Structure formats: C-alpha cells, structure tokens
Amino acid sequence: MGTKIATVLMGKHKPIFDPASDCGDYVVVINAKHVEVTGRKFEQKIYRRHTGRPGGLKETKFSDLIEKDPTQVIKHAVSGMLPKNRLRDVRIGRLLVFPEGEHPYEQNIMKIYDLKVSPSVEPIFEISKK
C-alpha cells in the first residue's frame, strides 16, 4: 500500500512526471486503525527517533503507536518510500490519513484504489517446457 501511495504523491503515474517538479496528487487514506501487518511485527516492530540530546533515543512499539496514533504508522511508511529531497515534506503534506472511515473529503475523491488481493492469485502466464 505504501508504494502505491508514494507513487501517486510523486506523480509517477502521470505522463508529465518530472523528478525535479512536484506534480503529484492528494491521497486520502482511511481505516488506518485497521492496518494489518504480517508475521510478528505487531509485537516486535520498533520505531526509533532521537531528540538530539545526549541519551535522547526514544523507542515506540508498533502496537503502542497503532493505539495512540494510527495515522503515524502510515505516514512513517510512506515517508520512507519517498525520495530524500526538498519535496519530501511537501509531498507528505498532501497525504491525508484518517483512523476510521469518516472523512470530510467524500465529494473530492476522483479515483478509488482498492488494494484487496484475493488469497488465490492466478499466474498471468505459464512457462511450458517442451
């Protein structure tokens, strides 16, 4: 999900894409509270940040962050997938994340990406040996 969001924020889906210009779109993410992770990431994943002071390393578990502010989980994931340049903060500013399904942008949404993948994925092509 994060890669698709980063692509739309950068504008790579448009034919006028230029890496040096900002031509991306706004992205509205809903139901951030119900995000699912694989494996044991729910208990083991740790977010680290530093205050800049001696001994200022702060650690937050994924399970604690999803209860406190689920929007930060999505923003952190997308932020890591954007290029590290001057446009990064502008692009993150266009990412609107809501913990539940209600949001004030219902009328403005042009395209809906539904990323639900069925458990039985069929191969696109098959290689046959002769």
From TrEMBL:
<dbReference type="GO" id="GO:0006412">
    <property type="term" value="P:translation"/>
</dbReference>
<dbReference type="InterPro" id="IPR005823">
    <property type="entry name" value="Ribosomal_uL13_bac-type"/>
</dbReference>
<keyword id="KW-0687">Ribonucleoprotein</keyword>
<dbReference type="InterPro" id="IPR005822">
    <property type="entry name" value="Ribosomal_uL13"/>
</dbReference>
<comment type="similarity">
    <text>Belongs to the universal ribosomal protein uL13 family.</text>
</comment>
<dbReference type="InterPro" id="IPR036899">
    <property type="entry name" value="Ribosomal_uL13_sf"/>
</dbReference>
<dbReference type="GO" id="GO:0003735">
    <property type="term" value="F:structural constituent of ribosome"/>
</dbReference>
<dbReference type="GO" id="GO:0005762">
    <property type="term" value="C:mitochondrial large ribosomal subunit"/>
</dbReference>
<dbReference type="GO" id="GO:0003729">
    <property type="term" value="F:mRNA binding"/>
</dbReference>
<dbReference type="GO" id="GO:0017148">
    <property type="term" value="P:negative regulation of translation"/>
</dbReference>
<dbReference type="Pfam" id="PF00572">
    <property type="entry name" value="Ribosomal_L13"/>
</dbReference>
<keyword id="KW-0689">Ribosomal protein</keyword>
<protein>
    <submittedName>
        <fullName>54S ribosomal protein L23, mitochondrial</fullName>
    </submittedName>
</protein>
